[in-house]
Amino acid sequence: MKIPVARHISTIVPYPPGKPIEELEREYGIQGSIKLASNENPLGPSPRALAALNDALSRLHRYPDGSGYYLRQKISRKYSVPFDGIVLGNGSNEVIEFAIRAFVQPGDRVIVPEPSFLLYKLVTQMVGGETVSIPLRDYSIDLEGMLAAVDDRTRVLFLTNPNNPTGTLLRKAPFDAFLAAVPPEVLVVLDEAYIEFARDDDTPQGFDYIHQEDPCLLVLRTFSKAYGLAGLRIGYGVTNPSVATYLNRVHQPFNTGSLSQAAAIAALDDEEFLSETLRTVWEGMEYLCREMDRIGLNTLPSQANFFLIQVPVDGKKVFEHMLRQGVIIRPMNAYGLPRHIRVNVGRPEENRRFVKALTLALDELSRTD
Length: 369
Ligand SMILES: *Cc1c(COP(=O)(O)O)cnc(C)c1O
Known about the structure:
By secondary structure, the chain is of the alpha/beta class. The chain has 2 domains: 13-44 and 272-368, Aspartate Aminotransferase, domain 1 (Alpha-Beta Complex); 47-269, Type I PLP-dependent aspartate aminotransferase-like (Major domain) (Aspartate Aminotransferase, domain 2). It is 40% helix and 15% strand. The strands form 3 sheets. A 7-stranded mixed β-sheet has the order 2-8-7-6-5-3-4, sandwiched between helices. A 3-stranded antiparallel β-sheet has the order 9-12-11, covered by helices on one side. A two-stranded parallel ribbon has the order 1-10. β3, α6 and β4 form a beta-alpha-beta unit. The mean pLDDT is 96. It binds pyridoxal-5'-phosphate. Pyridoxal-5'-phosphate binds at residues 39, 91-93, 117, 160, 164, 191, 193, 222, 224-225, 230, 235.
């Protein structure tokens, strides 16, 4: 290939996509494997969303509504947020990209917690920006450290609440103080991909803060987790309308499909599915933590639908051993936590299978280590 490539592009380490489950099963000669690696909904998709998809199928020859009018109207009414401040994305991941593309020029800085969602760094690099990583303190986001890192080259600052991969929460009082101190030239992105799962009330709800002009806050929500629609790729950001006009300039006219919009509208009404999901996740989390305790493994208390487990051997080895047993989890080596694994809560039978597989893996690995 002879095409010149910019240095900030050639040095990108691509996001590891992973193989389809079917391929893994073929490679390892296994069947009926379970996936607890991507924090997906263990119950499947919202039934109301499925019904809405069925209805929408006959209109697939039409382009989608590029403005996402009805979905934005639904979100605006449900959460009392400004209609003009809502930006839809092909997953909330795409809204992360809008924020960075709209405000970060080559050489500008983006502040991220470390470890946190890998995509913030990746997209920053795509546009030639520079990430400044602020280590977690005691597994929680260090708001003071992040604030201290803000300088006149900083354009965007990411917070994840609850944080991925730790499942820890921001607290209201420190968050309020932080927000009051952030300079108005910085966009604060509050990624709430897992906020539905949080049970502790002492945490900021991003929608309560977006009426203020400065500093600018962009709150991200997704249909991929609590609503079980990860495969459709639909999420959104809510911010004040003056910020939204810039986010809307950097996206293509039909970035979300008509099926995704229809399913998302129906999912927001599916209270029954959401409660069932939360009940399953909370009960499963209790069961799993109890079992880890019984086996003698340390876990990190989590307010999300996943949690970290400390393991006495290399996490990648645990991952590979469990994979051969047909249980897919996430090693945390790429997040700088080589002795942790991350697992999301599954259905009760999946959780039991996970405990068995982990026990066997640790048994065998500690004998050969
Ligand atoms: C899963 C996840 C998302 C959701 O991404 P989508 O593109 O909406 O599927 C966003 N942020 C974090 C931290 C996540 O873990």
